Amino acid sequence: MSQEVQVFDLDSTLITGDSSRSWCQYLVEHGLVTDPKLFLAKEQEFDDQYQAGILKVEDYVGFIVSSMNHTPYSKLCQILDTYVETVVKPMMCREGLEIIERSQRNQVPCLVISASAAYLVKRAAALFGIPQENVLAVEVAVDEQNDKLLPQIVGVPSFQQGKITRLHMWLEGHQITDPEIYFYTDSINDLPLCHEAQHVFAINPSKAMQQEAARHNWPQAFWHAI
């Protein structure tokens, strides 16, 4: 008998905005980057690459972390907590929260899988009651001795095909051999995982994703902030 698994993208799906882009803006507004104009221009360049499906996630993580690793990691964690509470929480989508709460009441596992950094995604997922072990995101190395983030990815980055790899690792670790995957996403970058899932829902889809959803008869929906 198959095991239902609910899998959610984070940005523009469970939340109405993009946690990574908002975090970059937050860093600038709070004086946490040394050259705000250059930082935002480069961040826009990376976002354009992401929208085009050609982003190299290693380059993006390296740039972002290098831009803020003059701040001790312990201090960044405090700033991240405040950021998620004040910026991300108001972007939570009511419809996604309702699905998660209903699924959890029925003992259905819920996962968040995102190409954003784990230090963001784990905090955002916690707002929806998702345990950290069910958050599959881009893990960034931490130098605990020197209290700083490192511009290095740990393990398989959960981006494009990597999302499938990470999901398979999670399923294997939880001894789920016959999953029935319900996947919710806005992004064309998630097409590999869309084709892996049994049920796909295009949530707040980009134009490219709208076209794919129409081609494959995937339901489309527009979720709203709580």
Structure, briefly:
Pfam families: HAD. The protein has helices spanning 19-29, 36-51, 57-68, 73-88, 94-105, 118-126, 161-173, 191-196, 207-216, and strands spanning 3-8, 110-117, 135-143, 148-154, 179-185, 199-203, 220-221. By secondary structure, the chain is an alpha/beta fold.
Keywords:
7-stranded mixed β-sheet; Rossmann fold; HAD-like_sf; metal-binding; magnesium; 7 strands; alpha/beta; globular; HAD_sf; 226 residues; HAD-like_SerB
Describe this structure in words.
The chain is an alpha/beta fold and 226 residues long. The chain has one domain (3-221): 3-Layer(aba) Sandwich (Rossmann fold), CATH 3.40.50. It has nine helices and seven strands, in the order E-H-H-H-H-H-E-H-E-E-H-E-H-E-H-E. It has helices at 19-29, 36-51, 57-68, 73-88, 94-105, 118-126, 161-173, 191-196, 207-216, and strands at 3-8, 110-117, 135-143, 148-154, 179-185, 199-203, 220-221. Strands 4-3-2-1-5-6-7 form a seven-stranded mixed sheet, with helices on both faces. Helix 1 (19-29) runs antiparallel to helix 2, helix 1 packs across helix 4 (73-88) and helix 4 (73-88) packs across helix 6 (118-126). The protein is globular, with a radius of gyration of 17 Å. The termini are far apart.
Sequence-ordered SSE layout with sheet pairings:
Blueprint: E1 3-8, H1 19-29, H2 36-51, H3 57-68, H4 73-88, H5 94-105, E2 110-117, H6 118-126, E3 135-143, E4 148-154, H7 161-173, E5 179-185, H8 191-196, E6 199-203, H9 207-216, E7 220-221
Parallel strand pairs: 1-2, 1-5, 2-3, 5-6, 6-7
Antiparallel strand pairs: 3-4
Helix pairs in contact: 1-2, 1-4, 4-6
